[in-house]
Amino acid sequence: MRKVDIFDTTLRDGEQSAGVNLHPHEKLEIAIQLEKYGVDVMEAGFPASSYGDFQAVQQIARTIKKSRVVGLARSVKSDIDAVYEAVKDAKKNGVHVFLATSPIHMEYKLKKKPKEVVEAAVQAVEYAKQYFDHVQWSAEDATRSEWPFLAHIIEKVIDAGANVINLPDTVGYTTPLEYAQLITYIREHVPNIHKVKLSAHCHDDLGMAVSNSLAAIQSGVDQIEGTINGIGERAGNASLEEIIVALQIRKDVYEVETNIDLKQTVRTSNLVSKLTGMIVPQNKAVVGANAFAHESGIHQDGVLKNKSTYEVINPEMVGLHSNKMVLGKHSGSHAFKQRCEELGLFLSEEEGKKLFKAFKDLTVKKKEVTEDDIFALMMDSSVKGLFPHYRMETLQISYGSNIIPTTTIAIKTEDGEVLQESATGKGSVESVYNTISRILQKEISLLDYRIQSTTNGSDALAEVYVKINCEGEVSSGRGIEHDVLEASAKAYLDAVNRLSIKEKFSRYSAKGVEVG
Ligand code: KIV
Ligand code: ZN
């Protein structure tokens, strides 16, 4: 069977989602899981965009062994240099260079004539080729480009040394039939096309990213690009897990195979959702909480008699298993460590100690601690000790009907100073947030607040996700606690702490040299 490469861009295009700001440590954790999932190529970031991203890509490149690690670059030398510095230590590396080819992008964005665009693309690929064996070139906005021009520029960049040609549907504009026809056209009109792999990259503005990607596979592309859970700018990218499961279930139609370990699907989706704060809709195909729930009596009856009456995907196939009770309050650190390892959690000694303490604290409040609880605790930034800038010491809230909610909070700074304040609010969450803003003496406004529970039951952990605007800078954070208000406070502080990390990183240039 023909093999299709899976190119994951969760850590680059996915991270461009509004309000997502991953710490380098979190990007590394996702990269490790993506490797377990079996992606052939992972686009770890855009190293020239910030020193934080440069560092994240570098750490990923030094850790990942099986997947190829690539970085994104505009068609400028300094971007390609930054990718080279970031990924040079990878076992398998590469660069992804792009340039827009549609009339609207060339005229208004690039302000270049088509001839100049061809020259710039060729120069960028030739330059990249000096450092890399693997050069992927993308014609940004390919689906709104003139097909003869596209064929012409692709021929030139292949001559310049590109190994993979990507045809992005940058604005999610194309349709399955049209995209398949474009791919066939390129195959038939680019004489040297046999020298490269062809790749498809779809966005979901019209809700067709997965269908368009599948049409591209039927049209013979060698590589499919997308993100886990379909996260990405605007309506997002094609959901890789949906494409991969469709290829498996409808092997009879697509007749291709991938390197993906399907059993890692749910774990990968959960990790990306928790770390990015992008909650997966309940009814989402493959990974939504209701994807395998049967509600109506007729369906339940059918499934009980024979699962395949109403279920085309076997939940075990994508790694969904019952949320069994794993440990209780009498469990010791040894059993806990062993269980974490079985769950595939990567813990340093320090993290292991912190996670065990968080687990013990939880067993006081919650009788049954499940795998999902442990997984949620692991996602808490404080367990990993990632953001030491501000730490909540104490939280006290008085709340009741007909009284004004009042909060008192003590926060410890990195220097050991304890800051304490009280404030009121219209509701208890607002009083918590007003108190934190007062302590930090910052103008902070709340842009988004979401809450969900980790498991079922009244003693479940609360997971809060917030997006804030702190003096013009947008940041997101999450907090996981048994108590809803404590989780809310932690999420707010987490968002502020992520900004202080960002500020620290922006003091460096892309090459890692301090500039100010
Ligand atoms: O959608 C797009 O065009 C991109 C390019 C950078 C490849 O993500
Ligand atoms: Zn894209």
UniProtKB/TrEMBL annotation:
Transmembrane segments: none annotated. Coiled coil: none annotated. Mn(2+) binds at residues 13, 201, 203, 237. The keyword Amino-acid biosynthesis applies. Its EC number is 2.3.3.13. PROSITE patterns: AIPM_HOMOCIT_SYNTH_1 (PS00815), AIPM_HOMOCIT_SYNTH_2 (PS00816), PYR_CT (PS50991). It catalyses: 3-methyl-2-oxobutanoate + acetyl-CoA + H2O = (2S)-2-isopropylmalate + CoA + H(+). Keywords: Amino-acid biosynthesis, Branched-chain amino acid biosynthesis, Cytoplasm, Leucine biosynthesis, Manganese, Metal-binding, Transferase. Residues 391-516 are annotated as: Regulatory domain. Its cofactor is Mn(2+). Pathway: Amino-acid biosynthesis; L-leucine biosynthesis; L-leucine from 3-methyl-2-oxobutanoate: step 1/4. CDD domains: DRE_TIM_IPMS. Residues 4-266 form the Pyruvate carboxyltransferase domain. It comes from the Bacteria. HAMAP family: LeuA_type1 (MF_01025). Belongs to the alpha-IPM synthase/homocitrate synthase family. LeuA type 1 subfamily. Catalyzes the condensation of the acetyl group of acetyl-CoA with 3-methyl-2-oxobutanoate (2-ketoisovalerate) to form 3-carboxy-3-hydroxy-4-methylpentanoate (2-isopropylmalate). Homodimer. This is 2-isopropylmalate synthase. It comes from Sutcliffiella horikoshii. The lineage of its organism: Bacteria, Bacillati, Bacillota, Bacilli, Bacillales.
